[in-house]
Design a protein that fits this description.
The protein folds into three domains: about 110 residues, 3-Layer(aba) Sandwich (Rossmann fold), CATH 3.40.50; about 170 residues, 3-Layer(aba) Sandwich (Rossmann fold); about 60 residues, Alpha-Beta Plaits (2-Layer Sandwich). The protein has 13 helices and twelve strands. The chain has a six-stranded mixed beta sheet with strand order 4-5-3-6-7-8, sandwiched between helices. Strands 10-11-9-12 form a four-stranded antiparallel beta sheet. A hairpin with a 2-residue loop joins strand 10 and strand 11.
């Protein structure tokens, strides 16, 4: 271990080796796992003839290729500009010294002009994102109006979340054996154990995700905060030390975004790549670390029914309630609305009254109770 070289990050001898390796292999880019300062990127590019980027820039490049929605593209652009803003003055100064890969086209800029240009772009993107977030809040409120429990799929990138989403919804979504296939959220209504749920697929977590990217994707990660249950997907086919590290990253991220109080079920995914003995060994190793583990294969739909049962059991804090309500012009649309949003067990009509028994999650049952009382009705029975 040694201190990073201020000029190149690594020593000059290693830079010469790196330059030779670039020539031998025809490499087009050099990637450092640790952060590079602009002067280090500039000097490495000067010595090797190719662009040098760090882990943050690599993640951004992957995100740029994966982004499909307007929101995801804006969030990535925002993260990129914030990264540029912190380095703007140094980058312009270096660009004026002579163009190198990664420092093209900045020579004509005055530092203050470039800095202000980036700041204005950040402000414009923030305004656009505010509008999108307002829409997201409205969508969330509409989903809440429906009264169905919300399940959020979470997990390390490439753990198989989108495959599990497809298995649970029986619907096609983009699935790929690559990082960050999902960069925006998708929500669908699913039904199992005679109950309806809203299932949301979210962006994947990653170890040491840069702070700027966490901030940029906060609105996407917020979907996890508002869930009634988190379905945490873990790729259990990897070596146990890797599985444990990624599981720890996911649990830490869930804690950091303020969702640690939400119940978690862990889908130990990709068991089709393991033998029976390996599955047992992995499950035994993880049962104390992974909340409510269920071994699954999203690809081959192994144990999907068992997973559904575990979800239904965890969310089985339904309230059963009965009420009577006068049959007015407002009452009938309300009863129709209730049929579409709760599990109505029984309805009887007598002269000018309706008697209804239904099951729903507690907060929705409270909402129904308030509405019944507004319409001149009476709650007869209200129990969990």
């Amino acid at each position: 271990m040694r201190s990073p070289d201020p000029r190149y990050q690594i020593g000059y001898g290693k830079i010469r080796e790196l330059a030779e390796l670039v020539r031998e292999t025809g490499a087009e880019k050099i990637i450092f796992d640790n952060p590079l300062k602009p002067v280090q990127s500039y000097n490495i590019a000067k010595e090797t003839g190719v662009e040098a980027i760090d882990r943050f820039q690599l993640i951004l490049e992957i995100f740029v290729k994966r982004a499909t929605t307007t929101e995801a593209k804006l969030q990535i652009q925002l993260a990129k500009l914030k990264y540029e803003l912190a380095r703007a003055k140094e980058k312009v100064r270096l660009a004026k010294m002579g163009e190198q890969p990664g420092f093209m086209g900045l020579g004509a800029y005055e530092v203050d002009v470039y800095y202000e240009t980036v700041k204005r772009q950040i402000q414009t993107i923030n305004e656009k994102l505010k509008k999108i977030r307002r829409k997201r809040v409205l969508h969330r409120e509409r989903r809440t109006e429906l009264g169905f429990p919300m399940i959020s799929l979470a997990g390390y990138t490439n753990a198989g979340k989108s495959s599990l989403f497809a298995a649970l919804t029986e619907e096609e979504v983009p699935v790929d054996d690559a990082l960050f296939t999902t960069l925006s959220t998708t929500t669908r209504l699913v039904k199992f154990a005679k109950k309806k749920f809203l299932l949301t697929d979210t962006v994947g977590f990653i170890d040491r995700l840069p702070l700027t990217l966490i901030e940029a994707f906060r609105s996407t990660l917020e979907e996890t905060i508002y869930a009634d249950l988190i379905l945490l997907v873990v790729d259990v086919s990897e070596p146990i030390n890797v599985v444990e590290r990624k599981l720890a990253v996911c649990l830490e991220t869930i804690h950091n975004i303020g969702a640690s109080s939400i119940p978690i079920i862990t889908a130990l995914n990709k068991i089709d790549l393991l033998t029976e003995a390996e599955i047992k060994q992995k499950v035994d190793s993880l049962k104390e670390k992974a909340p409510k583990p269920v071994p699954t294969s999203a690809l081959y739909k192994i144990n999907i029914e068992q997973l559904k049962e575990k979800i239904a059991d965890t969310l089985r804090n339904y309230v059963q309630a009965s009420f009577s309500i006068p049959l007015t012009n407002e009452a009938m649309p309300f009863i129709s609305w209730l049929f579409n949003r709760a599990d109505v067990k029984e309805i009887k009509y007598s002269s000018n009254m309706a008697y209804v028994t239904f099951e729903a999650v507690p907060w929705f049952a409270e909402k129904v109770k308030s509405r019944v009382e507004e319409l001149g009705g009476k709650i007869e029975n209200f129990r969990q």
